[in-house]
Amino acid sequence: MKPTKKQYIPKIPLTWAIWILATLLAGCANFSNDGGFSQVEKMTMEKSGMDIQWVRSSQDQDRIDSRIDQLLSTPLGVEDAVQIALLNNKELQAEFYELGISEADLVQAGRLPNPRFSMLYGRNSSDYKIEQSFTFNIFSLLTMPRAVEIEKRRFEETQKKISVKVLRLASETRKAYITALAAKESVQYMQQVKNAAEASSELARKMAIAGNFNKLDQAREQSFYADAALGLARALQAKTVATERLTRLMSLWGNDAHYQLPERLPDLPANAEELPEIEKLAMEQRLDIQSMKFRTEALAAQLGLTKTTRFINVLELGPARVLEGDRGDPYKKGFEIAFEVPIFDWGAARVVRAESIYMQAVNQLSAAAIDARSEVRESYFRYRSSYDIARHYQNEIVPISKRILEEKQLRYNGMLVSVFDLLAEARSQVVSVNSYIESLRDFWLAQSNMQMSLIGKPSFSESNTS
């Protein structure tokens, strides 16, 4: 039986194996087509039902401009205002480039540092000494998978953070819209108060000239008119401030800034939402909590990497050749290895620093979770109490004020009360209606804050219930 012939398997030098492996790994670290934006877009659609777009070309901007022109062609609804802000807000567009920065860090983590070439050249007459080496950082090759995993978690954290910012912009725009519309409606009613007070003051002036009205009552009517004029001026100021804030959030200017709002706020819903498990719901949905979890996990991985590299974090290996003697002598071939010798720095400081940063993040995450539970409880209480207050105005105070005015009208027709009593009651009813508008505004603001508290940290600054 003939002995089988052994198959020849060519041996690949170590340095060539390192080079091939490094090339393959570096080839895996590439940029995505959308820079991670699709994930943010998906979360925004799930949480708000709104479109977003990252403007990276003039064609993108043209499409957005066309969409905005369409939305502004009719009186602006609250959802239209939110959509314009999400498409057009320039600060949000700037935030989207955080995705590019974070993805660049991820891609960089998946690429080895460039190889190092070194050469020594020495000559004494015809005696030469030449040393050449071409080395790779092998330690980076060993730690690359963990470094990539760390940056991947940071990239996911960035996506969550930007999603929260998108949804917070939507919430702030919705509240700015409600505030601006309520201010517009208040101006209309304060104008009615001023008109009634002006008519009363003018009538008192004419009666005083005719000798049918004393100076005290005339001064009282003039005071009512002065207060009404001041109230209207303040209402106009509040309207301008609120409208300009909405305009800034939508990043509108020029002719686009002269948009039209509807005449009144949406009506109060028939019933308030019942959310008995709002804390559980918030813990499942809060993107800011999820973002902090990703950060904590990345720091945990970073701590493990720091402990791994505490003694040696540079290890270079590669082919080398040396010539000693005459220029025509053959080179001596071999390899060069270089690494740090932990004599002065044993890496303890780096480990302690990494441990401290990690434990800091753990406690920050715990604090954020506690705050989130409190925030949703508070936001839901504000929502329910604001609903009850607005409902009380709608069902009790405004109808009673209306009935009183009707009774005064009947008594005036029977000459049982004076025209001044009738005008005073008319002013009182308008003030009651205006208070109802404010309570309705506070309800819609509280609802927006409650919805935001289920996604991220809410802001109560716009609500008068704070």
Description:
The chain has 466 residues and is α+β, with helices and mostly antiparallel strands. It has a single domain (14-41, 52-453), classed as Outer membrane efflux proteins (OEP). The chain is 67% helix and 8% strand. β3 and β4 form a beta hairpin. The N and C termini lie far apart (97 Å).
User: Which strand order does the major sheet show?
Assistant: 1-2-3-4
The mean pLDDT is: 81
Shape: elongated
**What is the CATH class designation?**
Mainly Alpha
Helix content: 55-70%
- Following the backbone from N to C, one meets helices and strands in this order, namely HHHHHEEHHHHEEHH
| Oligomerization status of the protein chains | single chain
CATH topology: Outer membrane efflux proteins (OEP)
- Tell me the total number of β-strands: 4
Would you spell out the secondary-structure blueprint of this structure?
Blueprint: H1 14-28, H2 37-48, H3 58-72, H4 78-88, H5 90-109, E1 116-124, E2 127-137, H6 138-209, H7 215-250, H8 278-285, H9 287-308, E3 315-325, E4 332-339, H10 348-413, H11 419-453
Antiparallel strand pairs: 1-2, 2-3, 3-4
Helix pairs in contact: 2-6, 3-4, 4-6, 5-6, 6-7, 6-9, 6-11, 8-10, 9-10, 10-11
Sum up the structure in keywords.
single chain; 466 residues; alpha+beta; Outer membrane efflux proteins (OEP); 4-stranded antiparallel β-sheet; 11 helices; disordered N terminus
